[in-house]
Amino acid sequence: MGQTAVEFHAACLVPRARRFPPGCRQGHFGSPHGRVLPMKICFVVDKFPSLSETFVLDQIAGCLERGMEVGVVCNETSFGKDRNIDDPRWQALPGKVVCWWGGLGRYRPLLRKWSGRFWDKLSTAIDIAHARKLQGADVIVAHFGNNGMRVARAIKRGRISAPLVTIFHGRDVGEPLHDNTLARYKIVFEKGVLQLPVNGFFRDALIEVGASPEQVVVHHMGVRPNEIDYQWRSWEQATLSFISVCRLTEKKGIEYALRALAGLPRRDWVYSVIGGGELLEELKAIATNLGIADRVSFLGSRPHSEVKQRLRDAHVFLLPSVGARDGDLEGIPVSLMEAMAAGLTVVSTYHSGIPELIDDHKTGFLVPERDVAALTGKLAWIAENPRPCEEMALAARKKIEAEFNSDLLNQHFVEIAMQLGETRSLA
């Protein structure tokens, strides 16, 4: 699977661990005059806050909880546009939320369309002209490879000196892998100090194109199990309830879920699909053509509170992810982690980093990508064997608590960031 963030911290940072300047507490640095100052960490993202990137929000929350001064530099803000993520914490970040391009940010989509093949040079020039917004950070964390590349170019031009950590999630690795252009991140490897792919598959891919193995560390995203009630519900004497929560894009594989359910021998089942996306109408048509539209509900985007309730009411979580035709890949879907923590039986595929989360027939079920017959077979077995599934659901909950617990992961992340920031302060 590759080195994890925990293993990296143990192997590389322990000899220097806890070397905080006198009088400082974890999460803070001392000034030359003995004052205690919070460590400044800047997150670079595309849109903030984003409902589809709750892992970013959770990581920011983890840094805030540990005394860091957090700021965000983004392309656009979405405050007031989605009540599901209008948390006062995001508007009141101590380091502020600012647009990288300032007032020019609103013209970014138009400039990208207008500039064509010159977009890379134009956007880089504007990035560098506005890079001073990142200058005050002790550590910069770029989510997704494209943002890491933007920061790395500014570092190369001498506009930024803080250590750069880049977190790779999915599309940012999958699409360039598909196009054979993953080596585009060479400047990130050279100017950044640490790459944190979310799974071992991505780690191997980055190393293959030139990243130093010592600087590429698997750091999983996670969920907070203490905020998710575990509840097992048997379907032995009930209608079997399937559910998916995702954006309706090709890589989520919902088409294959529909086709597998259409072949399920047991007929007393229902399927709820939560989420919007470009494939919504196409998937509705597939359900109709398969003759199962009366048992499938496409619910669109729903408030998080409703999603949690519908998860509590369901039995089986379906996410048969696939590699999209444009190369887009999953990292390790947080929705699967949430379902496992909540006590659902989970069914997914041997895709990207998902096998790092789900052990087939131990903590859930896996099938090959796009294999409708295999998926139907697993669903049929689940339908007839609720009691063994209860044992697997409990094992899945324990795995989330031990390995995909964001409280623990955020602690390790903060410790790594602290060491990077401390190294800079002592330089």
Summarize the structure.
With 427 residues, the protein is an alpha/beta fold. The protein has helices spanning 5-13, 54-65, 88-91, 108-115, 119-129, 145-156, 171-179, 186-191, 200-208, 254-262, 280-289, 304-313, 334-342, 354-357, 372-384, 386-403, 406-426, and strands at residues 28-30, 36-38, 40-44, 47-48, 69-74, 76-77, 97-99, 139-143, 164-168, 194-197, 240-245, 269-274, 296-300, 316-318, 345-349, 365-367.
Characterization of this structure:
Helix content is 41%, strand content 15%. The chain has 427 residues and is an alpha/beta fold. It has 2 domains: 5-222 and 406-426, Rossmann fold; 225-403, Rossmann fold, CATH 3.40.50.2000. It has a 6-stranded parallel sheet, with helices on both faces. Strands 13-12-11-14-15-16 form a 6-stranded parallel sheet, with helices on both faces. Helix 1 packs parallel to helix 17 (406-426) and helix 10 (254-262) crosses helix 15 (372-384). The radius of gyration is 22 Å and the shape is globular. Mean pLDDT is 90; it is low at 5-35.
- DSSP E strands, number: 16
CATH topology grouping of the largest domain: Rossmann fold
Please report which band the strand proportion falls in: under 5%, 5-15%, 15-25%, 25-35%, 35-45% or over 45%. Answer: 15-25%
Please report the first level of CATH classification, the CATH class of the largest domain: Alpha Beta
Helix and strand content put the structural class at alpha/beta
Please count the helical segments. 17
Report low-confidence residues grouped into runs of 5 or more.
5-35
Q: Mind summarizing the main beta sheet?
A: 6 strands, parallel
Q: What is the molecular shape?
A: globular
Tell me which CATH architecture of the largest domain applies here. Answer: 3-Layer(aba) Sandwich
The N- and C-terminal alpha carbons lie at a distance of: 34 Å
Kindly report the spatial arrangement of strands forming the biggest sheet. 7-5-3-8-9-10
Rg over CA atoms: 22 Å
Compute the average pLDDT. 90
Helicity range of the residues?
Answer: 40-55%
Question: Which homologous superfamily in CATH is the superfamily of the largest domain?
Answer: Glycogen Phosphorylase B
| Domain unit count | 2
Organism: Mesorhizobium caraganae
Domain Glycosyltransferase subfamily 4-like N-terminal: 53-225
GO molecular function: glycosyltransferase activity
Domain Glycosyl transferase family: 242-398
